[in-house]
Amino acid sequence: MKNIGILQPGRLGDIIICLPIAKYYNEQGYKVVWPIFDNYIAQFSGLIDYVHFLPVTSDVYGCISQAKGTFMNYEVSNIIDLAATFPGSTVTERYVSEGDGFGKEKFDEFKYKIARVPFVEKWNLNYKRDKKAEDKLFNEYVKSDKYDIVGLTHSRGKVNKVIQSKHQLIELNEKHNIFHWRKVFENAQNICLVDSAVSNFVEQINVKGKKILIKKQSQPIATYKNDWKIINE
User: Fold this and answer.
1) 149 half-sphere exposure, CB direction, 13 A CA radius
2) Closest CA to 172 of 145, 195, 191, 186
3) Cα–Cα distance between 187 and 185 in angstroms, integer?
């Protein structure tokens, strides 16, 4: 089997966005080697069987060079660099020259273009669902037939929004694997999320129902096509 490497060690939302890229290449007969932040490894353990994840430092100034060293150790010469804006990435200059994610092409479109994978594949997020873990989480938090869920935390902090609900209001937290929240999302009456790894996950699994997306100030936004109402931070 041929080896191919993906250079995108973080953040979590970017990794989720790019997982279908890895799946696409795995289906072409490649073994996909992907170094990611060491604190993310547990998120994917047992759920993703088409990627060989390897831990690297979560220091953005050192992760790229460490990842490249990991590729050398595994004799991976075919590397897809998707890590625009990370110090040491070879595609940052091109990304900035093409609009820095604020032009006609969003940053997720840029990644799929660089990877030479059809952009429609982004919504083909494939992983092994842990229904037992999903049920346990659902039963822990859902106490009403009708409920709403809100998530205001992102990688740089928390947005200052007051969310009101006429149903049970469940606030998302980081105590659980992001993938195990799926049943809660799929059965919610309303979902309100800041643009984050979680919102990208909800988008890529095509959750139906009413959804509000809070757009962060001065940050490029990914592609959302599943009927979100977008408001500013």
Assistant:
1) 27
2) 191
3) 6
